[in-house]
Specification:
The protein is an alpha+beta fold and about 260 residues long. Helix content is about 35%, strand content about 20%. The protein is built from eight helices and nine strands. A five-stranded antiparallel sheet has the order 2-1-9-8-7, with helices on both faces. A two-stranded antiparallel ribbon has the order 3-4. A hairpin with a 5-residue loop joins strand 5 and strand 6. Helix 3 crosses helix 4. The protein is globular.
Length: about 260
């Protein structure tokens, strides 16, 4: 088995047992993977059916946010559930910003809350500077810390349902809609896969947290700093071998180099 990702960990989520690791404590950016932490804070606050109004400040003007937005419009209202779906399925940065501001009043206050919650979870080699994972100096995490976060997400039914969704429609205030396809293509190509989140910046490379089940086994894999061509192969191999799915390469095993 050949894995291009520079930082990898495979876990059994219920126990947290590590089945495979490659540079698990190396700290580097994780891009939109950190939207999982944003989602956790929102869900823990509750009231997902409550509607919130989009403000002009929720819409990042920075060109690096484009085209990864849901096209939110000032004055329109959306349920927190809808914005969570836009953020986790379509990786929409405007949805992440709106949810952060709604949660804490200001995005910076939300970032402070992210870092506090990360420490509470035991993510001791992580620091976050925005809710969506856009490039920022001094922002980083590790495969090991992401595994801690992923275990937490995997135990929350509302989030498990969203990250397993292949596509959703976001309805704007004027009745128009935008279809958001899940950025995790394994949901469409690997029946065992049921989540979780993709990420990409130049600093992070291609990243993926992927969850899946087969028979009585469940696994979560974290693959960070891979390439556009290899990330899907990395993740599918890791899930296939760790779940013991038949017809995988004979004799393959999860043993770190």
């Amino acid at each position: 088995m050949s894995i291009a990702a520079e930082r990898v960990i495979v876990i059994e989520p219920r126990s947290g047992a590590v089945l495979f690791a490659k540079n698990p404590t190396v700290s580097r950016p994780i891009a939109s993977i950190q939207k999982l932490l944003t989602a956790l804070l929102v869900v823990e606050r509750g009231s997902l059916n409550e509607r919130i109004e989009v403000l002009p400040e929720d819409l990042p003007a920075d060109a690096q946010c484009l085209p990864v937005t849901a096209g939110l419009r000032p004055g329109d209202t959306y349920s927190r559930q809808s914005l969570l779906s836009a953020m986790l399925i379509g990786s929409a940065n405007d949805a992440a910003s709106a949810l952060a501001r709604d949660h804490s009043g200001k995005v910076q206050a939300f970032v402070d809350a992210m870092n506090v919650r990360a420490k509470e979870l035991g993510m001791n080699r992580s620091r976050f500077c925005n809710p969506g994972g856009l490039p920022h100096d001094g922002q980083f995490s590790t495969a090991e810390d992401v595994a801690v976060l992923a275990r937490t997400i995997d135990d929350i039914p509302d989030l498990r349902a969203i990250v397993a969704t292949r596509a959703c429609n976001l309805i704007h205030g004027d009745g128009s809609s935008v279809r958001l396809n899940n950025t995790n293509r394994l949901l469409r190509t690997m029946p065992a896969c049921d989540g979780m989140k993709t990420g990409f910046t130049r600093a992070s490379g291609n990243c993926l947290v992927a969850s899946g089940s087969f028979r009585q086994m469940r696994r979560v894999i974290i693959a960070l700093n891979s390439t556009m061509d290899q990330i899907w192969s990395d993740a599918s191999q890791l899930l296939t071998f760790s779940l013991g799915i038949p017809d995988s390469t004979s004799g393959a095993s999860l043993v770190s180099d």
